[in-house]
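Suppose you are handed a protein chain with no further information: no name, no annotation, nothing but its sequence. What can you learn? This example shows the usual starting point.
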Amino acid sequence: MKLNSSIQCILITYNRKEQCKKTLETILSGNSPLKDLPLTVLDNASTDGSSEVIEIFAKKFANVTHIRHPKNIGGNANITRAYEMATASYVWVMCDDDEYDLTNWHELELALKNNPPAIVVANYNSPEKGVQYLFKQLSFVPAAIYRTDLITPDVLMNMYFNISNMFPQLAVAAAAINTGDKLPILQKPLVTMKLNPGNDSYVRGAKKVNQVHPLLKNMFWAKGYLSSIPMLQRSDYRQKCSFFANAENENFYNFCGRYMADGKGLFYTYFEGIHLSNGWGKLAFALLAPFAFCCSFFKDEKGLNIRLFGHIKTRIWKFKLN
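A reasonable first move is to predict its three-dimensional structure. Written in structure tokens, the prediction is:
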């Protein structure tokens, strides 16, 4: 398999000039296995000088194409656009602010020989343990390199619909899982998620936030993720993912508490959580959510905390995370 004709890299970016520059330098460095692959940069109408930086790389490297949208279409729409325009056998949609280590590229080449639906190239959440770990892993945009024949008109329609749920990429992930084929997982990841607090909002780039649709402004991680799970065709997969749907590797009880605390309307959020859960998850959420909302433990970058009565947080133990 000739890699220069089988994999297309598409980098999405918006107003992260320095991070974008660093990522492009990594991809196009002299020893990078990606340096000769076709690379398209989808610039979401950046205003911080990112566009000028990308143009420098596009003029220097013949395999780099810079597409700058006339207007900011939103981060999730930019993700969807990336998958829609994929033309090679495989596509890797990359983000501008993550850490890339391409030293294990040879393992990817071996996996490609079997023509799998997708190859998991990030491993922060043990996806080999089961579909509930795998599906959550694939919510991270660059977590997998996908075979582009998965992106059918139906899947693309699901992607556009799921923009409002924050996770258009999970439509492609669900399509890969729904094939029933085992997805190879690289032993050493090629990419690691790097969190950028404040930059992951649904409304990032909006000029007048008060004009953004209320459902979009009030969206939060758990709700969007639960809303994406029905794209999995197997009922046992949907149930497993419902029980596992939490943001910080905590148990289902703590997830229920976080879900309730993130919602804007308490009673609406409660019944919505029941509705979005699958199988026994409905009963579990109904029983655990009220109590978990009032009192639940969780970890953050500052240590172990306890939440009492919703949003009020009291730290009971401080420690340094590794």
